[in-house]
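Notes from hallway chat w/ T.B., transcribed later so I don't forget. T.B. wanted the structure written out for a chain they're using in a teaching module, and asked if we could keep both sequence and structure tokens in one place. Agreed to drop them here.
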Amino acid sequence: MIRVAEITRKTAETDIVLALSPDGTGKSEIATGVGFLDHMLTLFAKHGRFDLKVSCKGDTEVDAHHTVEDVGICLGMAFAKALGEKRGVTRYGDCTLPMDEVLVLAAVDLSGRAGYYDALNIPTPRVGSFDTELVEEFWWAFVRNANCTLHLRCLAGRNSHHIIEGAFKAAGRALRTAVAVDPDAANEIPSTKGVLA
């Protein structure tokens, strides 16, 4: 079974083309017009071993909000499309990731129910020109469209860049585990309900 997805989304605020293979090797080509987001998505793809291409033309002359949120929407849609009914997936994944002074926990459930729960406590309002409150906007957009539950917690840390970077890396690694096909249950839906929706 080849799991891939391509998403195109065009609004008055953004024009996005995104391609995803959850069974990749971590190759990425990211051009969103928001440098910090490009950096985070590159890390996410590398640590998740997802092949990911993203092109976005957004109204960054206003600010980065629409671009960040809409890329999150498209990434979530791509995971939902690529995984389909989620037959054979491991379903759950988690990662506790150390990065210098930072320790971040990520846990994901491909439950079919959208939920984002964070305790990242990012200490500064900006990293360079990037508004750090957009991290929450990105992940909410992602989980609503991927139909998954995601917990991100900063267990230790002081540097805003490191906290956000640790969160994206940890989320990628947790998702890598969750989307992997369980060889012992490759033809099963991992739920007693018989459906993940």
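Follow-up for T.B.: The longest strand covers residues 14-21. Might be a good example for the class.
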